[in-house]
Amino acid sequence: MMRSALLGFALATAAILPMSAMAQTPIAEGQVWTFKGASADTARVAIQKIEPWGRGEAVHVSIYGLAPTARFNGEVSHMPFDRKVLEGSLDMLTTEKPRSDIGFAEGYQQWSSANGGIFTLSIADALKAMLEVAFPSPPSASPI
Question: What is the dihedral of CA 98, 103, 105, 109, to 10 degrees?
Answer without folding.
Answer: -140
